[in-house]
Amino acid sequence: MFALQNTPASEPAFDGRDLRPLPWSKSRSFFDLTMILDESPAGLGGSVEYSTELFDQATIAGLCRRFTKLLTAITARPDCRLSKLDLL
Length: 88
What we know:
- Strand 2 and strand 3 form a beta hairpin.
- This protein is an alpha+beta fold and 88 residues long.
- Strands 1-2-3 form a three-stranded mixed β-sheet, with no helix packed on it.
- 23% of the residues lie in helices and 23% in strands.
- It is built from one helix and three strands; from the N terminus they run E-E-E-H.
């Protein structure tokens, strides 16, 4: 799964009621591989969650390096076809 969180954060207001997020932690992944990117004025940040039964840390690190390289190439050449960009 891939998600780009690029909606500006805002504080909800409901007639003066105070809303706070509840602490939440999940005990398992819902997908074999999940990448979530957050867009902010500082740039993109993100996280990767993966099944350790299917992937090891080195594989995920390599995937992240290649994805970063792809994003860099896309921003350098936005009119270039994806098929023409070096993925490795």
